[in-house]
Amino acid sequence: MSEDGGAVRSGASPLRRLARVAFLLLALGFGAWVVLGQWDDIRAGFARLSVLSLVLSLLAVLAALCGGMMTWRALLADLGSPLPLRAGARVFFVGQLGKYIPGSLWPVIAQMEMGRELGVPRSRSAAAFFLTLPVQLGSGLVVSGVTLLAARPGAAAPYAWAFLLIPVLAVAFEPRVVNAVLGFGLRKLRREPLERPLTRRGMFTALGWALGGWIAYGLHLAAIVHDLGPSGFSAVLFSVGAFALSWCLGIMTFVVPAGAGVREVAMVAVLAPVLDQGSAIAAALCSRIVIILGDLVCAGLAGLAARRATASNKDHASGKAV
């Protein structure tokens, strides 16, 4: 929605939307073809996964998703809209379900509308959303580069081109640059400037939460890889780097919902030095399933917690009135 109450327009023409759907169907078709071609190895890989590994993987995903929420919440607070933990979790996690819908704007539209109900200006919600992406992308590239080099020095070489973005994103972490870009964008959109500029403290806080999130995501993948291939500290380091790099490659592809397919293909390629193809595909698919489950669990729990808090506040208010 716009500041005057009008609807937000996605800016995507019918032809572009059709192209996105066609791309998604094509990607799913090729993905299904690859999966069917390796089905025996994939089924054998899934059979090797223990219940304990899957539970540990899900717990790590929940921690990683909370890290992402805290990254966004830190940026939003630094911009002038600190939200209580329960309310912030509901806005973030429920809004994030929009990433599974084709189109890149559904999550930010959902967060803008839910945030508005809590007194957060739409422009501030949008700024926090779009700032979260480069923070996670930049920190993810740094984490993947360091951990892959530490675990297997040659594993990162084929993806050296992606790490060229690190210096660019490092400049974007400077609040003065970010504030100037945000101010320019808001002027072009004929919106009021942000009342409170981003600070270094807010940016470093967000980066700290993002780094914690990457470690948790790596542990999520390590729990799966442990049953399919190598184990030990080196394998954990490699898993952190493999997940972070595949996520970054997926987020660079905005035409696909939540990086669907791209992240899995990248993960299979990055895991090639430690797993056979069938096991790597099983690990990538299992990771995707656990993350989807984690998104649903976080959204459900956050919504339930926020509803209970609202009901408790109403009961408290009615008790005072009596």
From TrEMBL:
Keyword Iron: no
One Pfam match: LPG_synthase_TM
Topology of this chain in the membrane: Multi-pass membrane protein
UniProt entry tagged with the keyword Transmembrane helix: yes
Domain of life: Bacteria
Localisation per UniProt entry: Cell membrane
Coiled coil, from the record: none
Name listed for the protein in its UniProt record: Lysylphosphatidylglycerol synthase transmembrane domain-containing protein
InterPro entries registered for this protein in UniProt: L-PG_synthase/AglD
Keywords, in A-Z order: Cell membrane, Membrane, Transmembrane, Transmembrane helix
Annotated TM spans: 21-39, 51-75, 87-109, 129-151, 163-186, 206-225, 237-260
